[in-house]
Amino acid sequence: QQQVKQSPQSLIVQKGGISIINCAYENTAFDYFPWYQQFPGKGPALLIAIRPDVSEKKEGRFTISFNKSAKQFSLHIMDSQPGDSATYFCAARKGSAGNTPLVFGKGTRLSVIA
Amino acid sequence: DAGVTQSPTHLIKTRGQQVTLRCSPISGHKSVSWYQQVLGQGPQFIFQYYEKEERGRGNFPDRFSARQFPNYSSELNVNALLLGDSALYLCASSWGGGANTEAFFGQGTRLTVV
User: Taking CB atoms and an 8 Å limit, are B100 and A51 in contact across chains?
Assistant: First the structure.
């Protein structure tokens, strides 16, 4: 049973365009939703995270939109750059304490072309 | 400040052998988690330790074991290696003490079983 479903599997975006990656979750106990960026041969790096009590969070060119009723959240990358080309993972965690495991989506491979 | 450090970075083992992977968390972080990432997939949770106690275990066989030391570093052991154990093993470090505790990943150990 996949608790976090991520789409699309791959994405090609023109430089300067908007990249949009979507995730859906099933477990309503999830209350922390981070996005990670991973380059080949590297570990995932935390990009941005959101709690379900807000509908949107923006950090620089990266924005998370959160729809609690639909149990969906998405990552928007504005003004996408070739350096953004990487694999992006959404994740979710339940519980108020930080010592609970992250559940990851399968990832989206983003290619930004000039 | 040093990030999460893992050793070794790469490892080749033969089926049936045993392997030990090591992780040093960020200074001040008390929680260490281990994840397995198979090529093309998101990380899958293996173990979580907080204050040297096991706080969670994922759906992995008993061949997998781990421990956390008084200095909060951690080891992951895998016995009787199978070809299917070939993966990137990631260690994540977090403070672990409250809500929204961010998890920071190391660069991983690439294990190849031949």
Answer: yes
